[in-house]
Amino acid sequence: MQMIWLPGAYNQAKDFEQEGFARAVRQRRKPLDLQFVDLEMRHLNDRDAFKCLQCEIIVPARASGASIWLAGISLGGLAALDYASSHLDEIDGICLLAPYLGNRMLINEIAAAGLAAWEPGQLAESDAERRIWRYIKTRIDSRPLFLGYGKDDRFARAHDLLAGALPASAVNVVGGGHDWRTWISLWESFLDSHFA
């Protein structure tokens, strides 16, 4: 199995190594191949980063017969969900740690309406935030989607909305905020519970 990780804003692929993500897999002797990918912020709206991700990483991995999970932290979580929303047949699961799920106005709008009643309206090509919530609202595929976040995360209100759309077994909430200490704790817990 291969898991492709997308970092958050102002983070880089090398940060996953430095913070112990690969070490946690090695310590547990899990048959999991991690790949940490840098996404340039300027490409998130024009979707060029997704073309590179697809052509250079995902398609070759699929061709080799690997099972693929796409994963992301913070803004990388938004990117992972956005990619999944339009490339469902290319991935086998999604792992999100403290994903950024949209601006406060959008989250307030969804919370006020309730996700089931909320309507995304006409979507512009560049509106990744509404696109991912439309995907969450209408998601019918059976691919696993795991969500982990800290109780004190600054995006916890949005996380709670997403958690309400997932089975309890797919959600892990721990003490902590929007930081690497919390994310490595969630990652280790995910490894122990999903790859036992």
Question: How does this structure look, described?
Answer:
- The chain is an alpha/beta fold.
- Helices cover about 45% and strands about 15% of the residues.
- The chain has helices spanning about 15-20, 20-30, 50-65, 75-85, 105-115, 130-140, 155-165, 180-195, and strands spanning about 1-5, 35, 70-75, 95, 145-150, 170-175.
- Strands 2-1-3-4-5-6 form a six-stranded parallel beta sheet, sandwiched between helices.
- Helix 2 packs parallel to helix 8 and helix 4 crosses helix 6 (about 130-140).
- It is globular and about 45 Å long.
- The protein starts with a strand and ends with a helix.
Give keywords:
196 residues, alpha/beta, six-stranded parallel β-sheet, 15% strand, globular
